[in-house]
User: What shape does this take?
Amino acid sequence: MSDRFRIRPWLYPVLWWLMAGGWGVVPAQPAPELYPMNEVVVTSHRVPMPFSQANRSMIVVQSSEIERLSVNTLQDLLNGLPGVDLRSRGAGGVQSDISIRGGGFDQVLVLVDGVRVNDPQTGHHHLNLPVAVSDIERIEIMKGPASGVYGADAYGGVIHIITRRNRDKSLSLHSAIGQHGWGEAGIHAAYPVGMSNHHLGINLNRSDGYRPHTQFEHYSFNYRPSIRHEAGNLNWLVGYDDHQFGANGFYGVDYPRQWEHIQTSLFQVGAEFRRSGWLILPKVNRREKKDDYILDSDRPEWYRNRHTTDSRGAQLQFSRNHRFGTSSLGWEWMQDEISSTNLGDHTQTFYGVFAEHQSIRYRNISVNTNWMAGHYTGCGWESCPSIDVGYQLNSSWRVFSSFSKAFRIPSFTERFYASPVSLGNSSLKPEQTIQYESGLSLYSERYSMGLALFLKNGTNTIDWLKTQVEDPWMACNITELRIRGFEYNLACFPSWGGQIGLNQIRLGYTYLQISKSSYGYLSRYLLDHLRHQVTISVTQTLFRHLELDWSLCYEKRLQYHEHWELDGGIRYPIGSCHLFIRGSNLLNRSGMDYSGIPLPGRWITIGIRYSVIGDLDS
Assistant: This one.
């Protein structure tokens, strides 16, 4: 909508070349080695543990795998991962809702470097982050409730994004153009200075849209300094994300000229140091967001909502190793404020304490326990315990079982929103769930496999309901929601990839069955869950370093037709450059994640990535 901010697609290669021109060219470096799966350390608990010893169902995607994938946005990266349900209203990461194990889009906790970044206004904005794919070291996805570890919002699962903090000097620049006026450019750099290290990421992309009023412009920036010293470590993250887009049918199909502009800023700092045998981990964070929504861009003041949210938090954790394992304890404080022309002005405050012990070991048995108790303004105290048990069958195979409880506080939108088509409910209660899970896992140098059965019983689950089609949607507590499920996932990194062959394979299958006690109502979100999901992704070398990656995803929802999607790309190194072609929905199949909002058809982009590795002064 704002032409004065628009950068024409043909300018992206020019910008890229200007940015690249001042840097020397060094020979291309070999592809990064794949990390052995059983050496990965994950954060399924307050104290990190080896991936091979986790007693929960998890997926880990590392930078070595990410670099081989033809993905442009965080949403592209998450889409198609086994057990992850990403529902989009557009392309280019404009707006996507994410759920795990049949939950709603408000029921997933998103962390960046161990700090929560959830949006208190609505889960639609959880993934509006100033973090690009090139900034990510790895992503950890923990399936199922985890409030005993992370507190509120860890209801359906946790997505933890860990950013790169390596001390190598590096610079990479990329640019691409494509169909529908697509244009993108970015720069990512790392530079160590003494005890400090500095990472910088700048990205921008835009499109004219794949149908009327779906154009967008997206800019993001982040700066991640860190200090490593014998006395302790200190990490910062400062970022800004600006996203404006046409929202054709996003919040009502009768209004095709909707427009939204979202600005998000993020600041967080964390430290770790040891004193008298204790590991001390303080963290402070702040997230601010401005959301300007227009129902009809031709009449901007006819119906317009402006929302400003400000979230602040702090936590302090103490951990200590001893003969019986590792114990942790600490406290956490959070405060969310909103000032809105529609929702009003509100403040909610949380304070709580947590404790953890890992792991009680007897022979090949390990036991980990977590507990958190917290108080939310207007909701009282909530207490969430969890326990997981594992038995190591041999060096690779492990059986596990877990019990966990979780809760979630209603969002500001669920409580206070008012429009002709949707009504919030200020009397909503916190939703709660209990999960029982058992499974089998395999971890070796080149393979990881997980199989799990689970049962979730939810009470006071929040959904938007109505009895008649012409009625407005109203936020309500469903009396009971039961979810049964089965999951299987396999990650394989064959040693015979070599010059010609397979480099990595991921397979996944998820089955969900949901029953509810509040019959006779139409559901807006929760009952549009996946029934079946099959995912396959492959990266392979064809010849002369030409790499091909492709992913196939099959989804069958309860209330929609089945949908197949094939995505892929190729890349080829020339000196210190990589040429690439990306394609989404290559079969050009029609489909939709939300009623009345068709997904894009086939979309091709081409681009180049220029890498400088080594001394930047050369």
About this structure: Confidence is low (pLDDT under 50) at residues 1-38. The first strand starts at residue 41 and ends at 42. Residues 209 and 516 are 38 Å apart (CA to CA). The radius of gyration is 24 Å.
